[in-house]
From TrEMBL:
Pfam families: DLH (PF01738). This is Possible carboxymethylenebutenolidase. Residues 30-237 form the Dienelactone hydrolase domain. Residues 1-30 are annotated as: Disordered. GO terms for molecular function: hydrolase activity. It comes from the Bacteria. InterPro entries: AB_hydrolase_fold (IPR029058), Dienelactn_hydro (IPR002925), Dienelactone_hydrolase-like (IPR051049).
Amino acid sequence: MSGFFRDSAALRTSGDAPVDPQRRVPLTAVEPDGPARGGIVILHESRTFSDALLDLMRSLAMEGWVTVAPHLFHREPATSDAEVFGDALFADFDATFDWLIARGIYADCVGVLGFDDAGTAALLVATTRPVGAAVSVAAPGIVEPLSEDAPALVHAAPGLKAPWLGLYGEDDPSTPPDQVEMLRDATAKSDVAGLVVSYAGLAHRADEPPQVPDGRDDDPGAQAIVDAQRRIFDWFDVNLR
């Protein structure tokens, strides 16, 4: 696939300690054709990268961003059905962040885009890491935390240190509309820009665009995914400077 390449990033030994070059996270990345404006870390909780996700990464690179996705399941055997969240996910983000910095990207020009549980991580990253902007898609754990070590998003959102965009579907059972409204209120208490957008149905997934008949650009699902993708691009364009 044109422009894509594999690499790996060294994991930190612990916290902010120096990296350990022997412990690494595999990466899939794509670079822009010209000078990079910054970098986007894609946190995607799947063992495989769908064509839609790769298309999204390519489109971000075409806008000038070095776009890189750590393979979050690299610690788990192929047959494992374990979910990825917690210290390991944040360690993989930190390694990927360091990889971008080593390539000359400034910290405040690094964005993070996360889906599902990794979308929850993206919001938490924006409360604890020196990133420039964050976007979460379908991030659960709004009222009840995903793990003992992670705060509920309604408690974390007022502490956002980087502008954050949240995209939700009104029919997603893991993120009921009343909880999304609570998160919208919590986000408004932060000192940075925050926006929570809800879409009818489930057509808000930039990594899983809806299947619509040819020539049906007026389909509500198609219009929603176009709007969701536009918001992601605009969020990074405005806030990563």
